[in-house]
Design a protein that fits this description.
The protein is mainly alpha-helical. The protein has one domain. The chain is built from ten helices and no strands. The longest helix has 29 residues. The protein starts with a helix and ends in a 17-residue tail after the last helix.
């Protein structure tokens, strides 16, 4: 009989596999399709929808991205990855919470495309960031909503710094099994650096909307952030390649990531030194 920790592990691996699809497609369309990348996050799901068995892939992504989000929430609230409760530990755990929220939003977007078979998913919104902008408008309508958005932008800036630090130091390798393919460190490093750039763009859009009254229509999601770099020439190309590599890296993680036990009685997770 499969215990709950093994079920949890398989769900997390499906989550990493879904993330691999997401970033691989994002990197590919950024490099090959100006019209699709201009659609922002919607362009990712529209591209997947055009693939053979595209609708089935979208449903897989709904499950996988939701599972990955739950994994990140478990890390935040139950510290299953043993980050600790000091300032540094809580910084990482809050970063995981932000990742959980972001991937849950992506899972919802995938769900809208997967379930909208009659119109081919195209009614998911003309703008890739429509859902995010609607949510931001709701936040701004509340007392201190601008401060909340601005602080969220600062949180993305901090996350961007952590992503870049991972890419430079390779510290992520101690959570990957020792028999992972050669080159994993460099593929992952390039991917984290690219994600750092994208997170900084998202953070700046939230900061401007919250503290500088730039308007919620300027808020960028994952695909929108990449699309906004399209006029930056070589920088855009490097980021696109990095995101494609991050997709390949996520595929490695789907197989070789050390998943902590869900059962707290099993003790501290044994990550590789």
């Amino acid at each position: 009989m499969v215990d709950k920790s093994e079920k949890f592990s398989w769900l997390v691996r499906v989550g990493y596999f879904s993330r691999a699809i997401l970033y691989s497609v994002l990197g590919l369309i950024a490099l090959t399709s100006a019209s699709r990348i201009a659609d922002g996050t919607n362009g990712i799901f529209l591209a997947i929808e055009d693939y053979p068995a595209g609708n089935a892939i979208l449903w897989l992504m709904v499950i996988g991205l939701t599972a990955y989000a739950l994994f990140r929430f478990a890390s935040t609230f139950f510290d299953i990855e043993n980050n600790g409760s000091d300032a540094k530990g809580w910084g990482k755990r809050l970063g995981h919470a932000g990742s959980g929220i972001g991937h849950l939003a992506l899972a919802f977007s995938a769900f809208k495309f997967a379930s909208d078979e009659s119109t081919g998913g195209s009614s998911g919104g003309a703008s890739g960031g429509g859902g995010a902008q609607e949510a931001a408008s709701g936040i701004l309508s509340m007392d201190f909503g601008g401060i909340v958005l601005g602080l969220l932008g600062l949180a993305f800036f901090v996350t961007a710094i952590f992503q870049a630090k991972k890419g430079i130091t390779g510290e992520f390798m101690h959570r990957i099994a020792g028999n992972a393919p050669d080159g994993t460190r460099w593929i992952g490093g390039a991917g984290y650096l690219a994600r750092g750039v994208v997170y900084a763009v998202i953070g700046w859009s939230l900061f401007k909307a919250g503290f500088m009254n730039a308007g919620t229509d300027q808020i960028k999601t994952l695909g929108d952030a990449v699309a906004s770099l399209a006029g930056q020439g070589f920088v855009f190309t490097l980021v696109a390649i990095g995101l494609l590599l991050f997709g390949l890296f996520s595929l490695v993680l789907a197989r070789y990531r050390i998943i902590p036990e869900l059962d707290s009685s099993k003790g501290i997770p044994k990550f590789r030194v």
